[in-house]
Amino acid sequence: MIFKNIDSVLNTKFEGEKVNLRGWVYRKREQKKLIFIILRDYSNIIQGVIKADSKSWKEAQKITIESSCELTGTVHKDKRAPTGYEIRISNLKIIGLSEVFPITRDKSAEFLRDVRHLWIRSREITSILKVRSKVFEAIHEYFRKNGYYEYQSPILTCAAGESGSTQFEVKYFKEKAFLAQTWQLYAEAGIFALEKIYCIAPSFRAEKSITSRHLTEYWHAEVETAWQDFEGLQKLGEELISYVAQKVAKDCKKELQFLGKDPKEIAAIKPPFPRITYRKALELLKKDGMKVPFGKDLRTIEEKKICSHYKKPVIVTHYPKKVKAFYMKEDPEDKETVQGYDMLGDGLELIGASTREPDIKKIVERLKAQGENPKDYEFYLDTRRYGSIPHSGFGLGVERVVQWLTGIDNIRDTIAFPRTPDRIKP
Fold first, then answer.
1. Most buried of the four, 167, 248, 312, 411, by CB within 10 Å?
2. 85-96 and 45-51 as β-strands: parallel, antiparallel, unpaired?
3. CATH architecture of the domain with residue range 6-96
4. pTM confidence score
């Protein structure tokens, strides 16, 4: 028996034809002589109807929400049906009869996180996960088209890549180790072999922030490029984001529309993106009645205000050195700042980027200033001792890009099983 996916039969091509479908019962409504079953599979939903004189009537009476089943029937166009077509069922077979499904009227955020393993079946989460998959595909495609090698770095590390205070410590036999915050330090070693590298891998941050844009475990798309200057780094970031946006707009129209997003608006996101310095951003915020002292990192409320002035993501450059990582290059014309940028979209930091500091003495000074022991970074310092070159790179938070593209309120819905300071299960 050949089964079709639901989406493939939602057109006039199959009208009047007999088809075989399989999936799960999304909704059920009973009348005296008719039972309506909304079937779902990975692709879509479709209404099925079965009459009381059918040989499968008893099966239809018995079947419950989220039961898995197979059905055979003819396709008919019906404007009253949820997706415009109806299957007139001639045969229904229950594969797995479901117990009473726990997700009914209580759809509070906390309850849905308790039953996340069931809630991922919802059309909303399914649509988001499809967009997420397309984002991964687009990132891989962009870098491979542009001559980058995929390169992996360790998940278990011996030193902090960002801040020691946000590391997850793990026992590693007789030694102390940490879950990787970034591939950064090991990536910089890799460019001396491959020159252009990228990776998508999980990163871990032990931040106690419980917000709509933070996760303790997230997927990090990172890139490092030999011989690349700051201007090239900015172009790389905007080209990647634009490429991802175009891909999602083209291939996920149905999902975006279901989530209330206009694919045309996403397709319009093309380079160049607006660029302002951190100092200019403070001036812009001051005009909007938000006074932020120099040296303070920007909060969500301030980033949203900055983004409200632009229709595209905005690149904010030259942040204060003291709020950025030790490996970011000091700007030669403004020594209080670094040659780095954050790309902001709708108040979300999509990309964090910088050229890398070439001066080994400055790196050691900044490590000490951040309370780190330079001896733990000897392997990293060797990249400056033996044939150092100009290079740069960035990290992109995949979940934040998915949140930005889909317009959903909470980053926790961009990943199948979110991890936060208050949740480690399911």
1. 248
2. parallel
3. Beta Barrel (2.40)
4. 0.94
